[in-house]
Amino acid sequence: MELHIEDKKSLILAAYGKIPCDLAVTNIQLLNVFSGEVYPATVYIKGKFIAHVDIHNEPITKDKALKVLDGNQSFLIPGLIDAHEHIESSMMTPRNFAASVIVHGTTTVVTDPHEIANVYGLDGVRYMHDAASDVPMRQFIDIPSCVPAVPQMECAGADFTFEDILEVVDLPRVIGLGEVMDFVSVASAQDRMMNMIDTAKQHDLYIQGHAPFVSGRMLSAYICAGPKTCHESRSSEEAKEKLRNGMYVDARESSISKNVKAVWDGVKHMKFHDQLTLCTDDKEADDILHKGHMNDVVRSAIQAGMDPILAIRCATLHTAREIHAENLGAIAPGYIADFLLVDSLENIKPSHVFFEGELVAKDGKLCKEIEKKVYDLEQQNSVHIDYVKKEDLYVKAPIHEGKVMVNVMKYKTLTLSSTECIQIELQVKNGHIILDDPDLKFVAVIHRHNKIQRMSLGIVKGFGTVKGALASTVSHDSHNVTVVYDNVEDAWIALQELVSCKGGMSAVLDQKVLHTLALPLAGLMSLKSAEALSEDAKKMKEANRKLGLTQMENPLLRIVTLALPVVPEIKMSDTGYVDVFKREHIPLFVNI
Amino acid sequence: MELHIEDKKSLILAAYGKIPCDLAVTNIQLLNVFSGEVYPATVYIKGKFIAHVDIHNEPITKDKALKVLDGNQSFLIPGLIDAHEHIESSMMTPRNFAASVIVHGTTTVVTDPHEIANVYGLDGVRYMHDAASDVPMRQFIDIPSCVPAVPQMECAGADFTFEDILEVVDLPRVIGLGEVMDFVSVASAQDRMMNMIDTAKQHDLYIQGHAPFVSGRMLSAYICAGPKTCHESRSSEEAKEKLRNGMYVDARESSISKNVKAVWDGVKHMKFHDQLTLCTDDKEADDILHKGHMNDVVRSAIQAGMDPILAIRCATLHTAREIHAENLGAIAPGYIADFLLVDSLENIKPSHVFFEGELVAKDGKLCKEIEKKVYDLEQQNSVHIDYVKKEDLYVKAPIHEGKVMVNVMKYKTLTLSSTECIQIELQVKNGHIILDDPDLKFVAVIHRHNKIQRMSLGIVKGFGTVKGALASTVSHDSHNVTVVYDNVEDAWIALQELVSCKGGMSAVLDQKVLHTLALPLAGLMSLKSAEALSEDAKKMKEANRKLGLTQMENPLLRIVTLALPVVPEIKMSDTGYVDVFKREHIPLFVNI
């Protein structure tokens, strides 16, 4: 953040003591993230910035500070920064998300609005930016780089080229190119991603990476192309290799992926960790509400054995450097006055949260409610599936009666999203496929973005539901409608539910709706607060468990990756089955 | 350094192993500055960049690398980077300087052509840039910010405003605003420096600081204004305070200022040192030739107790980050292939020096001579003192005979450059001041830049010369001609010497020239190689010692700061005595 030259002059003069600062926070133990020391100090703030840090017990007179806050010997630490996340994953609007995380001390997040961009394109990116423009925290935006995730293999609501970047690159809080996840194209220097990265660099964006399981020469090629960060290290070896190769490793602790311990185990022997950061990636409202946000990730790092001072540094200064934010993430003259008062460096529960020099939360409560605002996009409908008729949900065979051999997407376990393609012989009656094994389900992926009228049908094994139908408009990454069902009646009811609530998730059993979670904003997000949403999501989880999804810690997450054609080996999009490695289609019927 | 997109594609494909790299350096111990580890590896280079680092002993076939170098178990470390220096202080041209430092493993320097800018203005900056454009090392340029050092109190050959920055900001190797040394103006937010810094920031230059003895609130004010680096820490306390306040501390080991040990002692207790770097500031040809360059600074750091791996990191990765050079200072995919092979991490004598992927020095010798080139500025004369007549060197009193009270610039010691103002009664004969104490000398500062015809006269005590005259066109920072003398005959001869060799330094005793060191380039630099210059400088030192300057390790440096009006308390410029703190003139004669 650059100051206007007149404000800068005031800051300089306030630092020098020639004019008073606005606030002095005294009687605190300063955590200096530059040196790793903790010592008594008084921190002076002028406007949105830190002007001076006094360690000599200078008397705080009216000509030095207009207001004084006694820190009661608390630790003063920088506001926490999330290196990578998707706010959409909280299922909250940017404003409700802000209200939920500020109280936990997260003053900055770097969010990649990749999900809403797959629905609403650049309008979605602009909405995420604008809706957070006046909240008491900083939501930096990385422009989504891979919309859709796998071109030609799926149809999302938008198709980003490098020219699209130029449309939003000048928004004030746009700082980076979001996770460059098409590592196959990047490592083979294909034009689409080369142009995207080149354009981003020309506009001084940092390039955020995404390279799960990428290693050796492929990793080198990927890094040479530009991305210098990655939040996808799951194993110790992976984290070690990436740090050694000069990447920033964002150790992730999302609601579902807990990687912090493995990452730390892989790098703790190193002398230096200044390219290690922390992130949430995807965190649910319920988790945020009850466990916390970045403070919970820091706690995980400490539990994994990291020195608390290093853990806090990873979540502040390191991240600021990673995203090229020059005056963020530390307590020093000229730095943005985002800081927390905490009683303990191990259990980061902020009694006070300051954002840009203002007290915005105290003892877990916002000091001032965030003003309610209504945005056009929140009122729009994104579920355009009127063209689908009930009978379209029957899987029609090329024969009228008898048996056919079909390709089936088989999940390897009840918790992981990886799959394999197997072949099964199935009965056909009246031209329709009949499932005789309760572990087999029909699946339909229905284009919902008004670009085309197209749906695909397939068979899935080992998905986990026992009976009924489960439908969702949250369906990474193109977020078409996915329905898994054993009978058309239930599926049809679930789809009607989604249409009537403008998107979300619906579970139907024996023609009764167990629960519908309404996510009317892009079919991805609720307009509810964290508290209300958390209750709603609990009911939805319960309904999913009733359908049989009892193995996953969060049963909401089973259906949402079924149509993600970057998770090997076979996934399904609105274009049909996709061979993830070959990027080719697989037909439903074998040899026909 | 950004690659053209086609070169980048080649780099990516070479990293991936799809096309061959140009070179593989194998059988080495890689110092990984990111992690601080040392391990066996093979480093693959494509063009000017590192493509891949293999740690799995992949066979090096022709389809992977066109050439192979066996490192014989040497350590492979990044090329060394000098965080701050003035090439003019070596008294060599940029090309001769390059030849002298490359063999020691310095592949990048950040030079502030402040000295030549005080003589030739922007033409001087352009010359320093252009003359180094094709040498096998990287000479980054910081645009001088304070020309002259103290406006109104001296007249240099140029007077830089923020608009001058715009004239050179787009030169390819311009990266920063050079040491912002007018900290008094900066800390009081005065317009000249505010505009300078603001302009620099708008053009993405980093702001290099210079804040000797600045502490407390003044330091905070200075940092708030923009400078985030400082190479002027002399004491442990100073280094500690600056690091704590978020500055990069460039620990200096120049030919004259040895600060590395004090700096390290002040910060070694800290957990983190990632904003600690190393620099030479001012290093003589003789020193470079016989001791080394940045490798000698690294050795000093190790002798001061720093872990060798950290010391090397300070001189590579830390500096690259400080100057915002994204792909410099480390061995990793996508980084510039500047690296050294050394037998020991403690005694950094490179057997091989690679710059941008090419072997440029081996066993202390350049692999290829640097092409001789002649530049206009090297042929020009910068010593314009024809207007001075011999009789102008007599110090005339306001009375014809008798005694007058005069202000005298008194050096506090025979080695430090700090002074105080004392008052002495002196004899006057025939209207001229007579010196009756051999410790008193006349001094003249003569404007030489053709801007004005002006000289000032004064009396100095404790300078150190016993007899004769010493004259110099090297005279920080405005580089007018300074002469210290006890008789006008010798002084006149010395001045004639300087005129005839287009500047330099001359010592005259009993009307005989002891030695003249010719520095025809701007009156600051020789056109000779390090070897020849070193011999010449030795003779000059010897001559200075004969005049009585026996106390200083380098007697050349006594006269060059006499006219530097930023060193307290009293100095002298072409405008007369200057009160350094008050920035006011002091008259020669008391109460007249």
Briefly characterize the structure:
Two copies of one chain form a homodimer. The first copy, chain A, is of the alpha/beta class.
What does this structure look like?
Two copies of one chain form a homodimer. Chain A is an alpha/beta fold and 592 residues long. Chain A is 26% helix and 28% strand. Chain A contains 17 helices and 29 strands. In chain A, the strands form five sheets. In chain A, strands 1, 2, 3, 4, 5, 14, 15, 16 and 17 form a nine-stranded mixed β-sheet that branches. In chain A, strand 6, helix 2 and strand 7 form a beta-alpha-beta unit. In chain A, helix 3 packs across helix 4, helix 5 packs parallel to helix 7 and helix 12 runs antiparallel to helix 13. The model of chain A has no long low-confidence stretch (mean pLDDT 96).
Key features of this structure:
homodimer; 592 residues; alpha/beta; nine-stranded mixed β-sheet; 26% helix
Q: What structural category characterises the helix and strand content of chain A?
A: alpha/beta
- Most strands sheet of chain A: 9 strands, mixed
Shape of chain A: elongated
Mean pLDDT over the full residue set of chain A:
96
| % residues in beta strands of chain A | 25-35%
The DSSP helix count of chain A reads 17
Work out the largest interface and the residue count of each chain: A-B, 64 and 64 residues
Low-confidence stretches of chain A: none
> What percent of the residues of chain A sit in helical stretches (DSSP H or I)?
25-40%
- The end-to-end span of chain A amounts to 61 Å
Number of strands of chain A: 29
Radius of gyration of chain A: 25 Å
Q: What's the oligomerization state?
A: homodimer
